[in-house]
Amino acid sequence: MTTAPQVWVLLRNALRLDFRPRSASREGRWNRSAPLAVSLGLYVFIGAFVGSNLQRAHLGVEPAAALLYTVCGMFVLVNLLVEFSEILLAPSDGDILYWRPIASRTLYIARCLHVFVYVGILASCTAVLPILAICRQTPDPVRSGVALFAGAWLASLLVTAAVLAVQGVLLRRLPAEKFQDVLAVAQFVFLMAAILTYQLLSPALLRGAAEWGPNGSRWWWWVPVAWFARLPAWVAGDAPGPYGVARLWAGVGTLAVVGGYALRRLAPTYANDIQRTQVAAGPVGGRGLARLDRWLGARLAPWPHCRSGFEFFVAFLRGDRRLRVQLWTLAAMPLGLLLAALVGTHGHDPYATTGVAAGAGDAMSAAAGEWASENGVQSLFTAPYLLAILAIGAARTLARTPDWRAAWVFHVAPLQRYDEVFAGVAFGLAYQIVFAGFVAQAIALGVAWRDPLHVAAHLVPSFGATLLLFPLVNLFRFDPPFTLEPQRQMRGVEMAIACVTMLPIGIIGFGHYALRLRPWMPILGGAALGVLALVAWWILARRLRNVFRDRVFAA
Amino acid sequence: MIEAVDLVKSYGNVHALRGVSFHVRPGEIIGYLGPNGAGKSTTVKILTGLVRADAGRARIGGFDVVQQPLEAKRCVGFVPETGALYEALTPLEYLRFVSDLYGLERRAAAARAAEILAFLELDPAAWQLRMAGFSKGMKQRVVIAAALLHRPQILLFDEPLNGLDVGATIKVKALIAQEAAAGHAVLYCSHLLDVVERICTRIVILARGQVQVDGSLADIQRQYPGRTLEAIFQDVTGGAAERAAAPLSEPEPA
Q1: Model confidence at A179, in pLDDT bands (50, 70, 90)?
Q2: Cβ within 8 Å, pair B80-A100
Q3: In terms of CA atoms, which chain A residue is nearest residue B10?
Q4: CA B218, B224, B225, B230 torsion: positive or negative?
Q5: Are B88 and A21 a contacting pair at CB < 8 A?
Q6: Which of A13, A38, B34, B45 minimizes the number of CB atoms within 10 Å of its CB?
C-alpha cells in the first residue's frame, strides 16, 4: 500500500476517534464535540473583538492583515503547546499501530495533518470576522477575502511547522528517559518567552501598523507570521511597501525550509523516536524534593484522607507530563504577562504616588511611557487576576486524565469523607502551582518595586479572589479529579468558564485599582475575601462529602 | 521464518535480554515461557519493531526487522499483551480500519472479518456496538481477529487467552493449531503451562534475560526425568517455588 492512502486512513480514523466517547457512558456525540464548538465560538468572539478594532483603526490591507496574523499566530502557538502537541508527542495507540506496516514518514505526516486540521479550523474561526471587516474596504472583497484566509492559514501553518519541528528535534536529540521532563520545561519556557516577546513588541508593532511605511513596517520583520500579509495586499492591488515582496518570499521560503527539514530529517526516524520515549521511563523527581513534599503534606494536610489526596496529586503531577504542561501554563502565562509589563514600563509602580519608580523617569522613552500609562498598567493588574482566573478553572483540568479508568478505586474504597481527599488535592494544587505562581510574581514585583507593602497590595486581592471563587465555581459543576477521560479542546471550555468568572474578578480588580494609592486597603480587601472563602469552602466540603455515592463509574 | 540471534536489550540499568537466540520454522508453534520480567515481551517487541535491540539481529519471514521493517511487518500478525484497540469504534469499524492500513480489498476484508468474528463466537449483535462497553473477552476476540485479518504467515501471540471464556479458549487453541497446520510459524508467549504443554511443538524457557531451555516437551523431559513442566520451569527460573511458598504476613490483632 502506498503512503497517501495510509495517511488518509490514519487521519480519518484519528478525527473520528476525537469525536467518539471512549467511555461506556451514554455521553453522546454532541457532548464529545461540544468542547470544540465552545472553543470555536470563543475564537469567533475574540475575532469579533479584533475585527472591530481593525475596522475602527482604518488601516490598509497589509498592516491590518499583519496584525490579524499575529493574533492568530499567538492563539495557534498557545493551543499547540497546551493542547495539540500530544497528538505528535504522546500518542496512546502505539500497541495498535507501531507493529503494522506503516512507514515512519507516513505516521509523521498523518499526525502533522491531524494537528493542521485543528489549527486550520481554529485560525479560520479567529480570522473570519476580522477578514470580513478588512475585505469591506477593498475593491474586490471576494478575492481579497480568499487571499486573507490563505495568508492566515499560511501564517498558522508556519507557526505549527516551526513548533512541530522544534519538538521533533527535541524528540530526536534528547535521551528518551529525560524527554518528557525536558519537554514540559521547554514548553513552559517557550510559552512564557512567546507571551513576553509579544507583549514587549506590541507597542512598536501597533505604532508600526498605524504608520505603515519605510519606518513603520520595520518592526514587522521580527514577526514571521506577518510576512504573509503581503499576499492579500498584493491581491487587493496595494502597492508593495519597502521589502513587502521580500517578506512574503521570506515567509514562503521559511515554510519550505522548515517543512522540508521536518519531512527529510525528522519524519524518517519519528516512529522509532516516539517508541523510544514511550518505552523508557526515567526516575521521577529527586529524593530531596519528595522529602519536602512529604514534610509539607504532613503540615498542610494532617488528616489521613486529606494527606492521601495531597500525596496522590503531588505524585500524579510528577509522573504525568501532560498534566504538568497544562498546569504549569497557569503560572507561565500570567508570569510572562507580568514580566513584559515590568520590562515595558521600566519598573513603573502604580502604588507609588510619584507614579514612576525612582531613576526610571528620565530614561523612559516616549513609547514606553505611553505604554506604561495605558497597556502597561493594565497588564500589571491583569497578570495576578489572570493567574486567579486560570487557577479557578484548574479543577476541570484535573478531572481529565488518560488513566481515568483507575477511578474505580474511588468508587470501591469506603470513602466517608471525599471532601477531605479533595481538600488534599486542592492543597497540592495550591502549593505546587497556584502558590508557586503567586510567589514567582511576588519575586518579580519585589525586584522591580523594592517595596513589600506594594507587592502585597498587588497580589493579596487576587489571591483572596482565587480562594473565594475556586470553591464557588466548583459548587455548580464538580467533576472529581482524575475521573474523566480526556477530551479534545477542553481548554476552550475552561476559557469559557474563565469568561464567566471574569465578571466578579473584574469587579474585584476595578476596586483594587481604585484603591491602589492606599496600599493597605487592597490588602485588607484581599484578607476579607479570604475570610469569606472559608464559608465557601465549608459549603463545598458539605457538598463533596458523599460525591461518589450517586456517581456511576462509566468505564 | 522467525530468527532471533544474540538479542541484547537493556532499559537503563535493567538488562532485559542478554543474548537471546532461537528460531521458529514454518508449521512450528513455539511456547515462549518465563517468569515476569524474564524478557518475553521485550523479545516480542523487538520482533514486531516496537523496540530496537541494543545488539543482535532479528529476522521475520527472511526480512531484517531493522533494515526492512515494512516487509517484515507485512508478514506478521500480532496479539499484544495489552489487548489495545480503539474502544470508541465498533468491531467492524476497527477491522475495516486495519484492513485499510494493509490495503486489503474492502469486500474481501469484510467477508474475512465476519468469518473470523463468527469463528471466535463474537455475537453478531455486538459487531455494530462501540467496544468500550465490551467485556475483556469480547475485546480480545476483536484483537485476535485484527491480527489474522491479512492472513499473516507469522503469528506472535502474547497471552492471547487473556479474558477469554472456556468456549473461546478452545476455539483460539484450535485456531492456532490450524494456522500451524497451514504452514504458518507461531510464537506463543504465556504463563499458562498446561496450554503450552498441549499445543506447542517446542518450548523455550527464558529467565534473567537468557534462554535456559529450548526443545520439544519430550526432549526437555528427557533432560529432567520424572519432572513435570511446572517443576522444570520452577527449577530453571530459580526460586519461584520458594517465593510462592512464603505466606503474607498476618494482620495485626485489633
Answers
A1: confident
A2: no
A3: A280
A4: negative
A5: yes
A6: A38
| Per-residue pLDDT tens over the stretch A438-457 | 999 999 999 998 899 999 99
Q: State whether A5 and B100 contact (CB < 8 Å).
A: yes
- Is B25 touching A (CB cutoff 8 A)? no
Beta carbons of A275 and B51 less than 8 Å apart: yes
Q: What is the DSSP letter of A484?
A: B
Q: Which three cell numbers stand for residue A184?
A: 514540559
Amino acid identity at A327: L
Nearest residue, CB atoms, B101 vs list A6, A24, A282: A6
Run of H or E including A122: helix A104-135
What is the spatial distance between Cα A156 and Cα A322, in angstroms, rounded to a whole number? Answer: 23
Q: What distance in Å separates residue A91's CA from the closest CA in chain B?
A: 12
Mutate to test the interface with B, among A98, A104, A405 (most CBs of B within 10 A): A98
pLDDT band for position A431 (cuts 50, 70, 90): confident
Chain A contact set for B70 (CB, 8 A): 101-103
Neighbours of B27 (CB within 10 A): 15
pTM of the model: 0.80
Q: Are A99 and B73 in contact (CB under 8 A)?
A: yes
Spell A389-412 as b/e; 16+ CB within 10 A means b.
bbbbbbbbbbbbbeebeebeebee
User: Cα–Cα distance between B240 and B230 in angstroms, integer?
Assistant: 11
Inter-CA distances, A403 with A276, A483, B102, B144, Å: 21, 8, 31, 25
| Paired residues of B20 in beta bridges | B7
Of A96, A101, A272, which is closest to B52 when you measure between CB atoms?
A: A272
Confidence of residue A140 (pLDDT cuts 50, 70, 90): confident
Looking at residue A10, its amino acid is: L
**Mean pLDDT, range B149-165, rounded to an integer:** 91
Ordered DSSP codes for B32-84: EE--TTSSHHHHHHHHTTSS--SEEEEEETTEETTTSHHHHHHTEEEE-TT--
